[in-house]
Amino acid sequence: MTKGLSRKRPGVVTFAVVLMYIGGIAQIGLGILTIFLRYTPEAQSGGIALPITLLGAGMILFGLLVIGLASGVARGSDAARRGTTAVMLLSLAFAVVDLIVAADGDWSGVIVQSIAAAAVLVPLWTGPGRRYFAAR
Question: CA–CA separation, 56 vs 50, rounded Å?
Fold first, then answer.
């Protein structure tokens, strides 16, 4: 039996992959809803229909990136694991920047993103997940 077929994916890695798929699909859905916002009277009269559309398209592309990374992580790709780490930390940084720029004191985005990052990254870099990627 080959090395790749003899190793079973640990449950913690599967959990992280499922969370990534859910997050990617949710991001795509939010991107579609954002694109529909361009048809509101406020967006039409304010002249912001194009930026709203571009934001929605970016959200859809980001969701597709997350799904692609989840697929790579499921296959045991170390590059996908590193890419996932970069994307999750970048998302956390954007949540912190949003907290600072908005200046509304709403920490919910930072807290949610921190929990999501920990739920995805800790299983990939510790314990059975670390051994799973090291064996590849």
Answer: 10
